[in-house]
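Fold this sequence, please.
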Amino acid sequence: MLKVMHSAADPATPNSQWEDLIKLPTLNTVQWDNIKTQLDLVLLALESLTEIGSEAMLSAAVNLNLESRVPDRVALWRLRQSNPLRKGQGGRKKLDVEEARSLVLIICYLAKQHQELIRRAVGLLEQMAENNREPHQAALLGDYIDAFCNTYQERMEEDDQISTELLTHLALKLLVDLLFYSAPGGHRRLWLALIDSAKY
């Protein structure tokens, strides 16, 4: 059973959370590409499970005092288009450290808002594993996996290497990750995960 520490309230403020994410090692282009890809995929998982859209992300930016960095849908779209796996060249831009921090805080803010749903989905995943059943046999997980796979295939460049099985595995891994990102200190977990993913 997955265990995540929870407190009655997360005392961290947007400013203190921002300060938590200051340190970042020098990264090369490939490492930055890995970070951009990971951020977009985590957002894709969150969208697929909760059915949130750009409005919720922009609202989170306002609540976190990040509207100067993510002011509108176009800015958000351009940040997500920085993922090198995305289809199309239009609007793709370099992601800087401040923009990466902003996306981390937005992701964790939204994950915390939807923590109950995330916990329910992960709980179902554990139950299905214990009963030797396929995850998609649970309605919530089946809908999530379908939404993730369909949206991934719509938005990302075609890759013959990516099978439905691999996409399902990715979707479920990201679902478990979201549970940890929804907990107090989740922004630090995600930031460290990004740095770790950049090494490969």
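Confidence is low (pLDDT under 50) at residues 1-11. The chain has nine helices and no strands.
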